[in-house]
Amino acid sequence: MITNHNPVISLKKGDIIQSYGEYTILQGHILCRTGKHLIKIVQSGPFIVTEENFIGKLVQYQVRDNVRIARHPIVSTTDFLQKQGEAQQEMMQFFVRQLDIYTLPAKKRIMAFLFRMACDIGVFQLGDCYVPAILTQSEIARYAHCTREYLNGVRQDLIKDGWLVPGKKWILLDWARWEAYISGLTGGKST
Description:
It is a single chain. The protein is an alpha+beta fold. It is built from six helices and nine strands; from the N terminus they run E-E-E-E-H-E-E-H-H-E-E-H-H-E-H. The longest helix has 26 residues. The chain is globular and about 55 Å long. This is Crp/Fnr family transcriptional regulator.
């Protein structure tokens, strides 16, 4: 349970952060999602859980693995309200981005999803991007709105076409190529 009296909170997989406020992830990953849609994956750094009057309980912050977070006290209501407003605007942009991605054909939708995961949690090295195994293949397929079998077929095509490294890991080759391709799909906006 998260209260205002706990400066550092340890959470386990599946827990949902329900108290609004400003937090910093010290360890682990949190999935920001709504319904069957993954909005973003949050890792080490600050994030805001907005008050319910913005979008009710539509958005959930669900702990993905063992997580340690720090909850910041609200020192200035004005400062928090400004940060909350910025977080709400960002959330609306994420919703619009999700709608844009949802309209793409399945293969492009999968590529856009992989790109977005890489932007959220990827480790960049020598022009490529390694995406840690935070989600299972079944979860990636569910969030990309396709079957696991179709995802595996697309993965093989992406390997054959030089977009991914062969093997079980998700390593996106030639990051600049991915950025250019996704920018073309989304009309110049990176997802």
